[in-house]
């Protein structure tokens, strides 16, 4: 894949991840409105977000660069969950995790382009 094609693909991946993240945040907020549980949000969100995070880690561990991006994109929904459930202690960890995983994605994309035959 040529460098400019890879840049376009990276930009597309980031755009899809950002839109997906925003959609999940919206779903968390909307399903939390009027929730009468002690938590303040439907209990399934913790499971959904954990499942996405585990899938991201597993995917990144198998060498797929988009696993890092999935992990980074799940952090904004975790922050929304922390806010609607008043579990503010999640937020610093989410910010750090988001930075580390976004950096992992960008580093992986850069290393792939340097191993591309077009650069040899």
Can you summarize this structure?
77% of the residues lie in helices and 0% in strands. It is built from five helices and no strands.
> What is the overall silhouette?
elongated
Cα(first) to Cα(last) distance is: 12 Å
Evaluate the radius of gyration.
16 Å
Number of helical stretches of at least 4 residues: 5
Mean of pLDDT: 89
Write down the secondary-structure element order: HHHHH
- The number of domains: 1
| Helix fraction by DSSP (H/I, runs of at least 4) | over 70%
Could you list the spans in which at least 5 consecutive residues all have pLDDT below 50? 116-120
| Biggest sheet overview | none
- The number of E-state strands comes to 0
Beta-strand residue fraction = under 5%
What structural category characterises the helix and strand content?
mainly alpha
Structure description:
It is a single chain. By secondary structure, this protein is mainly α. The protein has one domain (3-119). Helices cover 77% and strands 0% of the residues. The protein contains 5 helices and no strands. The chain has helices at 3-32, 44-61, 65-73, 75-84, 90-114. The chain is elongated, with a radius of gyration of 16 Å. Residues 116-120 have low confidence and may be disordered.
